[in-house]
Design a protein that fits this description.
With 428 residues, the chain is an all-alpha fold. The chain contains 17 helices and no strands.
Length: 428
């Protein structure tokens, strides 16, 4: 089945979008499940619990390093075939983890999952955008990215509980079976798009310098940096405030992100700019409140709920802006750049938060997180011409006839240089 964008005003292609959402769910669950199984996996594999934690690191590292080369090699292939191949990569990886008694083999399986995951992540938003008319891209992307929230709020806890009941090997085996079944769903319900012929492929550099791309990437970097400063070290901050249940706070955050995604899905296609400005302003207000009242226990659940609702919708809003700036034909290339910056923001935020915690204490975390969030807010406010316009751009019919590439990562040195260029051009 080959299909172009749906008719304006018609129903969303729910079955295909939900299949893509399940692909996002599978990717997140595959990436994070080992973090909940450290004691259970350590003894059978003969390593310390910290080494099991490295399985998550291996996934992220493979996504960071391998995805752009893999993407470049696969740009000419049919998009649905690449999507199915990525899902089969997850199935093979999870099956190997389920069967392996060797730590090196398990690490190799995780590297495979990371490389295929990087390719998958760069495809999802662009794929969803091409399945619907331009005026409904935001809602389609919101549906697909809801799989991330579902995995965080339900999938990881449920997978950990399943592993406790039937064993961690069975949990990974079930995940492998689910990935295989998802391939069948994708083949039946997700439209196929052709690969890009060589003459139609926009070079990575040309996409990166397109008007509007750098401001969107800058917002991604600033927001993730600020978010991770606080989120990574929420437990010590809660302890300082006298709130001894960080697990409850994480559950509140995860639940609130569901509400944020729902609200964003309602607003993103009609009011994307004010919705993103409101979300970033709310995050900044929450951080200010936490910094000013760091010792007030009852404030924490309320503030975390508002933070989760605001942050939950931000990825959809930012990715929609990126797809609009790049155009559907080059959405996957642009998303690969964004995912690299996303990972850089996570790493920089975790490092910055740790340094602030050691040097200044947990009370300094909100004040450390606030400046980059304010920079993100200022970038959106300044980017009204190309990156975050008041009106969504009109559809580009010729773009819908061109297939989207896929990918995610860049070498560290090149990434650092790119981040500097994007930050310099944030006001475009």
């Amino acid at each position: 089945m080959t299909q172009t964008s749906q008719v304006e005003g018609g129903p969303l292609p729910w079955s295909g979008l939900l299949a893509l959402s399940c692909a996002a769910f599978t990717a997140v669950l595959t990436e994070l499940l080992p973090a909940g199984l450290l004691p259970a996996m350590a003894a059978p594999l003969g390593v310390a619990e910290s080494r099991i934690g490295f399985l998550v690191t291996a996934y992220a590292a493979a996504s960071f390093v391998a995805a752009i080369p893999v993407t470049a090699a696969l740009r000419g292939l049919p998009r649905r075939a690449v999507l199915c191949g990525a899902l089969l990569g997850f199935a093979v990886s999870d099956a190997l983890v389920a069967l392996s008694s060797s730590y090196p083999l398990t690490v190799a399986a995780r590297l495979l999952a990371g490389a295929t995951g990087g390719t998958l992540w760069a495809m999802l938003a662009g794929y969803a955008a091409r399945m619907v008319p331009a005026g409904r891209r935001g809602r389609a992307i919101a549906v697909v990215l809801a799989g991330i929230t579902l995995a965080l709020a339900v999938g990881v806890p449920s997978g950990t509980a399943l592993a406790g009941a039937v064993g961690w090997r069975a949990a990974f085996g079930a995940l492998a079976v689910f990935a295989v079944l998802l391939v069948g769903w994708v083949r039946l319900r997700v439209p196929g798009f052709p690969g890009e012929p060589p003459h139609a492929r926009a070079p990575l550099r040309r996409v990166a310098v397109r008007p509007g791309i750098r401001p969107v990437l800058s917002v991604t970097l600033f927001l993730l940096l600020g978010h991770q400063v606080m989120y990574t070290y929420l437990a010590p901050f809660a302890a300082r405030a006298g709130y001894g249940r960080p697990g409850v706070l994480l559950a509140v955050f995860g639940t609130a992100t569901v509400a944020g995604i729902w609200l964003t899905g309602v607003l993103v296609d009609r009011h994307p700019r004010p919705t993103l400005l409101g979300a970033l302003a709310l995050v900044a207000a929450v951080l200010t409140a936490l910094g000013a009242a760091a010792g007030v226990p009852w404030l924490l659940p309320v503030a975390v709920a508002l933070w989760g609702a605001a942050f939950g919708g931000a990825p959809t809003l930012i990715q929609t802006a990126l797809v609009d700036a790049a155009g559907p034909a080059d959405a996957d290339v642009a998303t690969s750049l964004q995912t690299t910056v996303y990972n850089a923001g996570i790493a920089a935020g975790s490092l910055t938060g740790g340094l602030a915690l050691d040097a200044l204490g947990a009370g300094a975390l909100p004040w450390t997180a606030l400046p980059p969030v304010l920079l993100a807010l200022a970038t959106v406010a300044a980017g009204r011409r190309y990156a975050f316009p008041a009106r969504r751009p009109a559809a580009a019919p010729e773009a819908d006839a061109v297939a989207a590439p896929a990918g995610v990562a860049v070498a560290c040195a090149a990434g650092d240089d790119a981040v500097r260029r994007w930050a310099h051009g944030a006001g475009e």
